[in-house]
Design brief:
Number of strands: 3
Helix content: 10-25%
Strand order of the largest sheet: 2-1-3
Number of helices: 3
Structural class: alpha+beta
Shape: elongated
Largest sheet: 3 strands, antiparallel
Oligomer: single chain
């Protein structure tokens, strides 16, 4: 039987940290909120899936994480902003 790799969930092993991410398009009566308050942490070696129905904000979320879109509010930090050690930075 194949065993899943052990993921180090210790602080400092985060690859991506998203906090309270939100993205809205338009203003006033035409304003549409595509992503509302998403928070998660992905660790090195961990596999995550983003699932949802059509139009639920999956692509918008990925675009904010990758830096293609700027979030209306919230933050995204990648390993380059979290790493304090050379060994950690070399994984990025």
């Amino acid at each position: 039987m194949l065993e899943a790799p052990k993921i180090d969930m210790a602080a400092g092993n985060e690859a991506i940290v998203a906090s309270a991410l939100s993205k809205s398009f338009g203003e006033g009566e035409t304003k549409v909120t595509a992503v509302n308050g998403v928070t998660f942490c992905a660790h090195f070696g961990e596999m995550l899936f983003i699932v949802g129905s059509s139009g639920s904000g999956k692509t918008t979320l990925l675009s904010m994480i990758s830096g293609i879109l700027r979030a209306t509010s919230g933050t995204v930090r990648g390993c380059e902003t979290l790493c304090a050690t050379r060994a950690c930075a070399e994984r990025c």
